[in-house]
Amino acid sequence: MFAKLMPGRTTAAAEGDVVVLLIGMRINHFRGVHHWLPVMLAMVRMLRELRAERSRGLLGHVLLTGSPRTYYVVQYWESKERLYAYASAPDMFHRKAWAMLNRKEKKSRQHVGLWHETYIVPEGGYESVYADMPAFGLAAATGSLPIEGRGRWAADRLAHRSGAK
């Protein structure tokens, strides 16, 4: 139940480019639960589907809340191609959920807002440090290693090159 703490300072073991998808919803009207609850449950179902089929490319995710109205997921993907393939795959739930949302959009629009942002971060454009933390975020998605493996300073970690493309 409780994640194992990794003592000391660690960094994410990510190699190459990192694909980060932020996706979320905002409850605009709490009373419209029949509009926003299906959206929330659809995201949970998609995450469950992706955990069951690791070959689809989702490396890991973190569920977060920005306020009592705003919920979002930080997702780490193997590549933008895998992300696009999942989003458009006719056999996966995302397509069904998107079609369902588009049918209800005019009625739901006032009750629930949706958003996403996608970032393709090239190697050398990210670094991380975790102090006495369980695996979290990028490290939970890609593994972690002692900070010395990438450098004591942020500039050293940003200068790391794996040779992966």
Note down, in words, how this protein is organized:
By secondary structure, the protein is α+β, with helices and mostly antiparallel strands. The chain contains 5 helices and 7 strands, in the order ββαββααββαβα. The strands form 2 sheets. Strands 3-4-2-5 form a 4-stranded antiparallel beta sheet. A hairpin with a 4-residue loop joins β3 (58-65) and β4. α1 runs antiparallel to α3 (93-108). The radius of gyration is 18 Å and the shape is elongated.
Essential attributes:
single chain; about 160 residues; alpha+beta; four-stranded antiparallel β-sheet; three-stranded antiparallel β-sheet; 7 strands; about 30% strand
Number of separate helices: 5
Strand elements, count: 7
Q: Which structural class is indicated by helix and strand composition?
A: alpha+beta
| H and E order | EEHEEHHEEHEH
Helix content: 25-40%
Oligomer: single chain
Contiguous runs where pLDDT drops below 50 for at least 5 residues? none
Q: Please outline the major beta sheet.
A: 4 strands, antiparallel
- Rg over CA atoms, rounded to whole Å, is 18 Å
Placed side by side, the strands forming the largest sheet appear as: 3-4-2-5
What's the structural blueprint in terms of helices and strands?
Blueprint: E1 6-12, E2 18-27, H1 33-52, E3 58-65, E4 70-77, H2 80-88, H3 93-108, E5 112-121, E6 130-133, H4 137-142, E7 144-146, H5 154-159
Antiparallel strand pairs: 1-6, 1-7, 2-4, 2-5, 3-4
Helix pairs in contact: 1-3
Overview in brief:
The chain is an alpha+beta fold and 165 residues long. It contains five helices and seven strands, in the order ββαββααββαβα.
